[in-house]
Amino acid sequence: MPLILDSSPSPSPPPSSIESSPATLRRRERNEADVVIVGAGILGTSLAVTLARQGRSVILLEKSLKEPDRIVGELLQPGGVRALNELGLRECLEDIDAIRVKGYEVIYYGTEVHIPYPANAAGDDDGRRRGGSSGAFDGENPGVGATEEKPLLRRPEGRSFHHGRFIQQLRLAAMREENISLIERTVTGTVKNDWTGQVVGVEAENPKNNGSSNSSSSARDVYFGQLTVLADGYASRFRKEFISHAPVSKSKFYGLELIDADLPHELHGHVILGDGAPVLLYQIGTRETRALVDVRDGTSTASVANGGVKGHLRNVVLPSLPKCVQPSFERALDEGKLRSMPNSWLPPSTQQVPGMVLLGDAMNMRHPLTGGGMTVAFNDVLTLRDLLSPENIPDLGDTAAVKRQMRRFHWRRKNLTS
Questions:
Q1: Which of 238, 262, 324, 358 is the most exposed, fewest CB within 10 Å of its CB?
Q2: pLDDT digit string, tens, across residues 351-366
Q3: How far apart are CA 98 and CA 335, in angstroms?
Q4: What is the mean pLDDT of residues 192-219?
């Protein structure tokens, strides 16, 4: 049997609640749901919670439920915080040592330029706080002088954090939903109707059996849904099958975790611009700061003859950093915990495959330097909450109606994804 994590709405649920739910039994015994979502990451998990709260039955599949360890997806812009609040998931930012972010400090050839978030950075029309509606403002300082008739003009804030901690909080939120089964499985392919080409579900195998000589066809399961959502991230195994575009990557972000770094401007992201490619610095915890260095493919100072990427970081990047940051950067470099991730660009695609939609980084990516990926994902979920609501699409098996709504989705999201 697959590992199935069903939620409990309270510490002591009534005996007849989840266990006897027809939708739960259908998910457990027949592997059937209204929606099958592949990928319990930023978009997949938040979409699962959102659809479940609309009364949809959801199977959420993830190849590993261990805490992910990534060097991007760590800074949520104010518009993302607002969207997270509107989705009812603001609590996922609690108890993960998240850091408030008030804006950016751009250091251009040693000259500091302070850029606070504008008043409308959270996506509000005028940036005014109205009873906590945006959720992107500093809740610790409600301000003085605001009245119901004249709300106080406030600047919004983002949040930065360890990516894995935030993901785990989202997954816990999913596990608390009665309408979701979170299952640890590796999805290997889609299941289609041979006559119509409609995607009717996915095939998956237990990740614990991967590579085992004892594994057999009995370790495989098929999960059926009226709608299948593929949100398996930047390294999607399904992208080539369903869209014609391929990601374009001409550089990588090399990441270090600095301990007790002395940043020029607290509670701000920092962008260092000079002769080399950009460097991004931001806190992800009380003591931890992420350093991301953009290194283009073929950079001569990162060649093997010059000591590779570490040589580039030590000889070119380190001297260009603010003096106060250099000691912690050098310590992290000496410890050798250097990691990388491709900087990819992928234009969005319309969704016209019956029974299936491709979402998140699997469908659309922008350079991580923009810090907009998670904000786009949460706002995509807000848009889909409306377009795919039971009021608009009573039956998700109505593929023609779903395809019409996904065409609307493609155009509605343009302002956030350009």
A1: 324
A2: 789 999 999 988 888 8
A3: 25
A4: 75
What would the pLDDT profile of 55-89 be if each residue is shown by its tens digit?
A: 999 999 999 999 999 898 999 999 999 999 999 99
Instruction: For tokens 């850091």, name the residue.
Output: 99
pLDDT at residue number 51: 98
pLDDT at position 63 is 95
What is d(CA 277, CA 340) in angstroms, rounded to the nearest whole number? 15
Residue 298, pLDDT above cutoff 80: yes
* Class of residue 219 by CB neighbours under 10 A (exposed 0-12, middle 13-18, buried 19+): middle
CB contact at 8 A, 33 and 58: yes
Q: Which residues contact 90 (CB under 8 A, 6 or more apart)?
A: 81, 84, 135
Q: Residue 215 — φ and ψ, nearest 5°?
A: -70, 150
Count of other CB atoms within 10 angstroms of residue 278: 16
- Give the span between the Cα atoms of 158 and 156, in whole angstroms: 7
Alpha-carbon radius of gyration of the chain: 23
Q: Which burial class, exposed, middle or buried, applies to 76 when counting CB atoms under 10 A from its CB (0-12, 13-18, 19+)?
A: buried
The amino acid sitting at 88 is: G
Contacts of 336 (CB under 8 A, 6+ apart): 310
pLDDT score recorded for residue 124: 57
Contacts of 208 (CB under 8 A, 6+ apart): none
The span from the CA of 342 to the CA of 112, in Å, is: 28
171-203: b (≥16 Cβ within 10 Å) or e: bebbbebbbbbbbbbbbeebbbeeeeebbbbbe
The model's pLDDT over 217-255, given as tens digits with 9 standing for 90+, comes to 457 899 999 999 999 998 899 988 898 888 899 999 999
Nearest residue to 187 (alpha-carbon basis) of 209, 208, 198, 202: 202
